[in-house]
Amino acid sequence: xxxxxxxxxxxxxxxxxxxxxxxxxxxxxxxxxxxxxxxxxxxxxxxxxxxxxxxxxxxxxxxxxxxxxxxxxxxxxxxxxxxxxxxxxxxxxxxxxxxxxxxxxxxxxxxxxxxxxxxxxxxxxxxxxxxxxxxxxxxxxxxxxxxxxxxxxxxxxxxxxxxxxxxxxxxxxxxxxxxxxxxxxxxxxxxxxxxxxxxxxxxxxxxxxxxxxxxxxxxxxxxxxxxxxxxxxxxxxxxxxxxxxxxxxxxxxxxxxxxxxxxxxxxxxxxxxxxxxxxxxxxxxxxxxxxxxxxxxxxxxxxxxxxxxxxxxxxxxxxxxxxxxxxxxxxxxxxxxxxxxxxxxxxxxxxxxxxxxxxxxxxxxxxxxxxxxxxxxxxxxxxxxxxxxxxxxxxxxxxxxxxxxxxxxxxxxxxxxxxxxxxxxxxxxxxxxxxxxxxxxxxxxxxxxxxxxxxxxxxxxxxxxxxxxxxxx
Length: 473
What we know:
The chain is α/β, with parallel strands linked by helices and 473 residues long. It contains 14 helices and 16 strands. The chain has an 8-stranded mixed sheet, sandwiched between helices. A 4-stranded antiparallel sheet has the order 12-13-16-15. It has a two-stranded antiparallel sheet with strand order 1-2. A hairpin with a 2-residue loop joins β6 (228-235) and β7.
């Protein structure tokens, strides 16, 4: 047993509070046992929310461990949502992840994505398939033909070329009813939602409803903008629209094409009820058209926005179709929201990078973007089929829920396992896995992204995952 106050250095450090941890002797890597001890301290209430932790150097010295182990443990628990790290303020307790949120909670950045050889991260396309040659060729064409003025400070709403190309593309492919004047280009869907949240807060919207479970980042963004977030459950037909009235919300955020993470689509009847709710109270629907481009068993339904353009803020991006690193997203807005949203965009960053906007506009205008989408659909469908086969072979009794669509699937295990131990065990085996825990920290639901892994990697990753689950049981 290791204790933080059981060596001669105790009492000499000023870099954070004292911390008693018990690292059980027994099987398993020391790193996993350290992470488990920290989780248990939070779960048991010995570490309260917002409480500051010792520095990694101090805790490593107190426990007699290498600092690298402590740094990795803090990093893993930050990723899972147990801890929070802020530059200049150290590491503090965020609290146990809430029921229904994915583990890890935040969207991984470069330090996390790609570190594991078999990472089933649900939000990434196949980055190796990014059309580098096509993008470079198109960028060169743009550079040759663009006037000098194109390199000036950008239009905060986006270049006219991209707003026009998006209007045509979204109308043709998603049925969106808009004009170039109502489109605002953003640095990805994340910034689009952030700007919407801030703008709505300025306009007096205090409470926003969201689907639950949802992408954890959605709730974090809206809460950071000052909104109270009301959680509305999701079933096999999508969000329970009949419960919206009781929330007292003035807006709702939905993913009707492929709900994240459950993977269901909002049925036509509920789409009509959702629009009726918005129109009856002059409320706003924020439609995140998440994964809408990828359906493998049937044609997708059009966007909800087409049913009520003046009551829907439509949000999309190129992150899932091309690459998240491009940071290109867009909003198609009701007329009254265009100017205040553009003002928020101008205050935030002054507008998106012009050359990338012009490059994407050229791809949309020449139908090259459509060809990239078709190739991605074929590739993703084959990888989803590989996931289905691997689960049937390695984890019998596991079933996939939701549509054959998008970049991820929700797998329902025959029996629940400890979510935190599954994440830790998966990482030790080189597998990134994302369970949805209940209040007890148990989970029988795994959100498995398949688009970013080759078919052989999917098979090997599921085999390793099955070994981890068998060991937990």
